[in-house]
Amino acid sequence: MPVIVASDLDRTLIYSAAALALTMPDARAPRLLCVEVHESRPLSYMTETAARLLAELGDEAVFVPTTTRTRKQYQRINLPGPAPTYAICANGGHLLVDGVSDPDWHAQVTARLADQCAPLAEVQEHLLRAADPVWVRKHRVADDLFAYLVVERELLHEDWVKELAVWAENRGWTVSLQGRKIYAVPKPLTKSAAMREVARRTGAGLTLAAGDSLLDTDLLLAADQGWRPGHGELADTGFTAPSIRVLPDRGVLAGERILRELLGAVRGA
To answer: Which Gene3D superfamilies does the protein's record reference (predicted)?
Structure first.
């Protein structure tokens, strides 16, 4: 039976220049491969070793990129290895099959959202009204499923995020602060549900997962085994569980370590 590897992308497998965490002397820094270009500029990287490991992983398992990015944002990424048959975008709102969103899955998701939580328009209106223009740089809606703010982190009051989380909780939504983005996401919109659907379609006998943020929690707990790096929201909160391996590595080298461990688990299955 096939093995599924469902992994978050940003700050798990791929890294912006600001997130690389190259703390070693320059002469010992790893060689990097650019895997995303946006508006003619390089945006995301992985080490060349990580790129090789990912290509090997794609040959030996069902690799499923699993991201909160919109479909358009995901499609900017050019990952090494075979093109994934399945990809999970918009935090589970879209299940791509050979690059195309599965309409039946998307319809199921939108029906759950309509039934179980407050509408997006209400949340978006609250964000527009409550966020301070002093630290907000952008208001965004992702694939008509959830909303997020791009902020100046050093000007942001952490208490505001906590207050937003309480407000959202009462309406069936969750809040996550990742780098310069504050996400407001409906609780039924999960990566784990989409991963389970891929497992059902492929008849997978084992599911492996990796991620660094609060929005990856359900994915890691739903998998048979999970990995998280030494950075990110989950590390900041000390999150762990019996099935999750906590790695000390931080930055782009954590992505390399995660891929090495995932590949080892696939080969040992």
So the answer is: HAD superfamily/HAD-like
User: Do 215 and 185 form a contact (C-beta atoms < 8 A)?
Assistant: yes
- 154-205 residue pLDDT tens: 999 889 999 999 999 999 999 988 888 999 999 999 999 999 999 999 999 9
Helix ranges (H only) for 170-227 are 191-202, 217-222
Q: What is the DSSP letter of 107?
A: H
Residue 137 phi, psi dihedral angles, 5° rounding: -105, -35
Q: 116 by DSSP, 3-state: which?
A: helix
Q: Are 227 and 188 in contact (CB under 8 A)?
A: no
Tell me the three state secondary structure of residue 23: coil
Give the C-alpha distances (Å, rounded to integers) separating 267 from 60, 226, 260, 263. Answer: 8, 16, 11, 6
Q: Which amino acid is at 221?
A: L
Q: How far apart are CA 73 and CA 66, in angstroms?
A: 12
Report how far residue 239's alpha carbon sits from residue 174's, in angstroms, rounded to the nearest whole number: 17
Q: How far apart are CA 69 and CA 179, in angstroms?
A: 14
What does the alpha-carbon distance between residue 146 and residue 155 come to, in Å, rounded to a whole number?
24
For residue 153, CA distances in Å to 127, 150, 156, 179, 211 come to 16, 9, 5, 7, 22
CB-based contact 116:94 (threshold 8 Å): no
Q: Kindly report, residue by residue over 80-134, the tens digit of the pLDDT.
A: 999 999 999 999 999 999 999 999 999 999 999 999 999 999 999 999 999 999 9
